[in-house]
Sequence to fold (363 residues):
Amino acid sequence: MQQVVIIGGGVIGLTSAYALSRAGVKVCVLDQSEPGREASWAGAGMLPPGGRGSEPQVLQQLAAQSAQEWAAFSASLLEQTGIDNGYRCFGAFNFAASAEELNAEFLDWQAGGVSASIVETTTLHEAVSCLSSRHTAAIHLPTAAQIRNPHHLQALQVACQQQGVEIHGQQEVVELERSQGRIVAARTPNTRWLADQFLVASGSWSQKLLAGTGCSIEVEPVRGQIVLLNCGERRWTHTLETGSRYIVPRDDGRVLIGATEEHVGFEKRNTLDAIARLCSYAADLIPELADATFERCWSGLRPYSRRGRPYVGRIPELDNLFVAAGHFRAGLSLSPATGRLVCDLMCGGVVDPLYSSLLPTPR
Fold:
C-alpha cells in the first residue's frame, strides 16, 4: 500500500485525504497548527449552485461538480460519523447597487448554466419579511446551500481517522527533502516524514513551502473578517449576498456577516473599522440586526491565486510532489471535486483534460 503525506489539514487537505483513503491509500496529514482551524474554519459555509459564465471554464466545471456532490457527501459523512455538518439547501438572494448590475449578474449566472431568476418586492419580502423596504429586487438562486464549517471539518477529521488516516497537529513542515527528481521526506523540526507521494495543501503558506522545488506558484494571503450575531431565533432562511459581502442565517438564530478582502500579508486580526462596516451593511439589509447580540468576530487568511484559478496537479520535474492550493474564497465550496481530482491524479485515474489548466508551471 502506497503512503501519501499531505501537508495541510484544511478542507482541501482533509477532503483529499478522505478520497485517497477510500481508494485504499495510506495517508498521513501534517498541519502546522491545529487541523481545520485556518481559512477553512473561518468562513461562513456558503455553497454556490455552480459557477458564473464569466469564470474560467475549469472553475465552472469544478463548481458544478461540487454543487452536485454536496448533498450526498454530507449525508455520507453524517451516516459514517453521526456528525451533522449543517448542510441546508435554502437558496440565496443576491443584491446589487443598480438594476443594470443586477441584470448583468443574473445573465452571468444563466451563462454558467445555473438556475436563477430576478424577483421583486412582493416575492422578495414574502421570503425575507424582515428585509428593509429599501431593497426591492434581487437574484434568486434556489439551489444555493450552506454548511457549518467547524462541524464539517470535525466530520471530515473523524471520517478520515475512521478510515485509517493519521492526522498530526503542531507539525510545521520546514523543508521538502529532494533527491534524484523526487521528494524523499517532509521534514519538521523534530521528524522526517517518509512517503511515496506528497501533497502540499497548505493554503496561503503553500508558496513558501514550494519555493525550493523549482515550482512557480503565486499564492498569497487575503484577510477576511467576519462577525457573529445572535438573534435568539431564526428569522429567515436564505443567504443574502451583495458582491463580496454576505449575511448567512443559521438554524440556532445566529447570523454570520462577512467578509472583507484585505491584502495585509499574514496579519490575522480584527479591526474596529472593518467590523463596523460589516455591521452597518447587515443593518442596512436587515434593520433588526442592529439590536442583535454581538457574540464575537474573527478573521481568516484565504489563499489568493494571482492567476485567477487554483493550482492542482503534479509539480513539474518532480515525480511524486503534488499541490492543491490557491482556491481563495472557494476552498470549501470546491473541495468535493478538488479532493476527487487530487485522488485521481495521485492514483493514476482518468482525468478530464480541461483540468490541465490548473497545473503549476515551471519557473
User: Anything to note?
Assistant: Residues 57-81 form the longest helix (25 residues). Residues 200 and 206 are 7 Å apart (CA to CA).
